[in-house]
Specification:
single chain, four-stranded antiparallel sheet, 6 helices
Length: 479
């Protein structure tokens, strides 16, 4: 019945319309949806990781273990584990079943970004500041770190003409972003010189390299199928690149060519892009802009700008698209709020009455011949009983079709108010008057014995006042 209340043409729309809400718990710096799309992980500036429930916009988990700015978060394939990387030189693997730390890995430099393997949550790749990237195996309590090369693998013709100076420059290249392919057999890395390196996970060697641009590659992101990739670079151009199936046994790496399919940019204003994301189907690309509060949405097929999502009056950082719905989330750089864009669906109230139809203008109504006939009460009652005899199957459920055979994890509910409610640090105290909320306001009852004593004192104080109020009239009567 709910589907009939909504216009099906609106449901068929693939991109959101307007800003519809926001969630807040501290100052968010990075966000990421899980594969199922029911939870949104947010890394905060104070080192806390917050898990939002998308259906209720409430906080499902708060994970505390970092001491500094969270750089990136990455979900496991089943949604049970979450990897967080921070500027405190650590990566932590969380078990969301109980919110505990499963593994903690410390590096020699701050972590720029870390990405979990799509099927093995004990394997991740990390891009470090001023250091080569590392492939980390945490299947045992003592992590095993394997260094990956940032130098590109040039073609055979270029290797013959490669001089010593060029070789030294290639060795000095730094990797700023690393991601796994959909199968997890290869790593795609972007360097500060615009090179795209494909590294085999088993041998940890670079098997192919191609140059996308002359600037820094800031971000790489794959579609859900892994067949397409979007890149954001410092040259203010967003590129979409088809990715072949690198896991084929007879695939020729030497003769492989990775070519740019589409380029998106603002030719007039020359805007820079903070963050990019693919839509759930991969047909659209969304990007947040530098020094601007809008989100641009392009269509890949026609290479056209289809929508500019107007946001709040602040610059937006990380932007993420829901994996199954036309739903976009982005975090504000100034306030740290997570803003939500979706489709505004006006309900068709005519669906509540099957015989009622909405018309745009007045029309002449022609009644049926038996429409206002009077029927006996017994006949009407018999018709109702016949309709109630229809058997309704409420037990059979249709199986949910998933893209992979991997079991999807359902997060248990924690009935702790500290972990279940959102924080609003700014509260209204009067008409047009706002103030900052104190850290312990409204939670005195949770402070244990002290709050209990205070409550008793307050209660006893009330009783004393009440007793005095009772005695006063009696003295008045004696006078």
């Amino acid at each position: 019945m709910n589907l009939s209340l909504i216009d099906p043409f609106i449901l068929a729309q693939d991109y959101p319309d307007a800003l519809t809400g926001k969630v807040r718990s501290g100052h968010a710096t990075c966000i990421r949806f899980n594969r199922k799309g029911d939870f949104l992980a947010s890394g905060r500036a104070d080192g806390t990781v917050v898990i939002f429930d998308i259906e209720t916009n409430g906080v499902a988990r708060k994970l505390r273990g970092h001491t500094r700015h969270i750089q990136a978060v990455s979900w496991s394939g089943d949604g049970r584990y979450l990897l967080s990387s921070s500027q405190d030189w650590k990566c932590i693997l969380w078990d969301l079943y109980d919110g505990s730390k499963l593994r903690t890995v410390r590096f020699e430099t701050p972590v720029y970004i870390a990405e979990l393997h799509p099927t093995n949550h004990f394997l991740f790749v990390a891009s470090l500041v001023d250091h080569p990237p590392l492939l980390v195996d945490i299947s045992s309590p003592i992590p095993s770190k394997h260094q990956l090369s940032s130098a590109p693998k040039r073609p055979k013709l270029d290797r013959a003409d490669l001089n010593e100076k060029q070789a030294v420059q290639d060795a000095r290249q730094l990797t700023f972003v690393t991601i796994f392919t959909a199968q997890g057999d290869h790593i795609i890395a972007g360097t500060n010189k615009g090179w795209l390196n494909i590294i085999e996970v088993g041998s940890r060697e670079t098997v192919h390299s191609t140059r996308l641009c002359n600037g820094l590659i800031i971000l790489l992101r794959l579609t859900a199928s892994g067949r397409d990739m979007v890149s954001n670079a410092s040259d203010r151009v967003i590129r979409t690149i088809p990715i072949p199936n690198l896991s084929q046994t007879d695939f020729d790496m030497e003769n492989m060519k990775i070519e740019v399919e589409h380029k998106f940019q603002d030719v007039v204003n020359r805007l820079s892009w903070n963050h990019v994301a693919f839509s759930s189907t991969g047909d659209y690309v969304a990007a947040s802009t530098y020094m601007n509060h809008d989100i641009y949405v392009w269509e890949r097929v026609h290479e056209s700008l289809v929508k500019i999502l107007e946001g709040p009056k602040e610059e937006l950082g990380a932007v993420e698209w829901h994996p199954h719905r036309p739903f976009v989330a982005a975090c504000g750089l100034e306030t740290g709020c997570v803003y939500l864009w979706s489709i505004i669906t006006p309900q068709r109230w005519s669906a509540l009455a099957p015989d009622f139809a909405e018309v745009e203008e007045n029309v002449e109504y022609v009644e049926r011949e038996d429409e206002f006939d009077i029927h006996p009460i017994e006949e009407i009652h018999k018709r109702r009983l016949d309709l109630e005899d229809e058997a309704v199957d409420v037990l059979t459920t249709d199986p949910i079709k998933e893209d992979s055979q991997q079991e999807i994890f359902s997060m248990p509910v924690i009935l702790d108010i500290m972990d279940s409610e959102s924080e609003e640090e700014i509260v209204a105290v009067g008409p047009g008057t706002m103030r900052r909320k104190s850290p312990g306001e409204g939670r005195d009852w949770m402070n244990g014995a002290e709050s209990g004593n205070d409550a008793e004192e307050q209660g006893s104080g009330k009783r004393v006042v009440a007793t005095t109020a009772e005695k006063t009239p009696s003295r008045t009567r004696r006078r």
